[in-house]
Amino acid sequence: MIRRIHSGGPFEEKIGYCRAVVVDGWVHVSGTVGQGDTVTAQCQSALDVIGAALSKAGAGFKDVVRVHYYLPDASDFEACWPILSETFGAHPPAATMIEAALIDPKYRIEIEVTAKLP
Hints:
Shape: globular
Protein name: Enamine deaminase RidA (YjgF/YER057c/UK114 family)
Strand order of the largest sheet: 1-2-3-6-4-5
Strand content: 25-35%
CATH class: Alpha Beta
Distance between the termini: 17 Å
Largest sheet: 6 strands, mixed
Structural class: alpha+beta
Order of helices and strands: EHEEHEHEE
Pfam family, one: Ribonuc_L-PSP
Number of helices: 3
Organism: Primorskyibacter sedentarius
InterPro entries: RutC-like_sf (IPR035959), YjgF/YER057c/UK114 (IPR006175)
């Protein structure tokens, strides 16, 4: 069985995707951007949206096993480290940071996660 989780974000309908897909005990959360004027505000906002999707799926950040971070400017990443460390705490996932252009130049970070249902 496949379960799709929608967050109501504007790009979901425009592009044709959903925030997360739950299948075979795994939660695949789409790349998520956040709102705000700074990379740290956008990071926290994106994590809030991801956290809500994980919760709807029956998981949490402690269940995340893989995370990808995409930033147009890799030098912005270090400012996010304290937020990410606090979010994942004692359960850090495997992680990759990639420097890449995002869907709109106003976005400074996009985060994508995979979690295993508890």
